[in-house]
Amino acid sequence: MAYTYRFKSFVRLSLALVAGCVLSGCASGARTGAMTTGVVPNAIVASNSPARNAIALGNVSGGSDTNPLWKSNVSTDNFLDALKQSLQLNVLLAANAGQYRLDAELMDLDQPFGGFDMEVTAHVHYKLTDETSQKVVFDETVVTPHTTNFSDAFLGGERLRLANEGAIHDNIQSLITKLLASPALKG
């Protein structure tokens, strides 16, 4: 009798663990394409703009790889690729050495531990330096929140990944708008 009770308890516990693993899913890292922003509508670069094809990427850091057993993160490589592609799509990226060097540090991703709606806030410090004068012309930490709702994804790990991607996407979009509004790049 005691053996049957232990076996049933073991089966229930095993089923609960399997169900928990299936419902939570394995964590996956943020995808470059989802973080890349297309042409920013309010920040179109004119053909005679000093910003056009003028920005080279310098040091990009701060991301962290995703541990599939823990939670989704944004890797430095994916952040770098998303930033590069976004600058390129907005006609800001220099083919070689540019007039300006953009350094970026992903300082923090404020992530919830769990929940139905997941809000992630990206804190990225950007510094734009004029390569001729070595003068810093833009130095700001851009903070952008992004919320993913339960209706966007059933699995919590998936919602967190989507919120990470959205926060970085919005951050890069905000950066581009701010850069083109800065006195150094207005021309």
What report would you give on this structure?
It is elongated and about 80 Å long. The protein has 5 helices and 4 strands; from the N terminus they run H-H-E-H-E-E-E-H-H. Helix 3 crosses helix 4 (156-181). Helix 3 (76-89) links the parallel strand 1 (55-61) and strand 2 (100-110). The longest helix is centred in the last third of the chain and has 26 residues, at 156-181. A 4-stranded mixed beta sheet has the order 1-2-3-4. 30% of the residues are buried. It has helices spanning 2-24, 32-35, 76-89, 156-181, 183-186, and strands spanning 55-61, 100-110, 118-130, 136-148. The chain is an alpha+beta fold. It has a single domain (2-186), classed as Rossmann fold, CATH 3.40.50.10610. It is 38% helix and 24% strand.
Descriptive tags:
single chain; 187 residues; alpha+beta; Rossmann fold; 24% strand
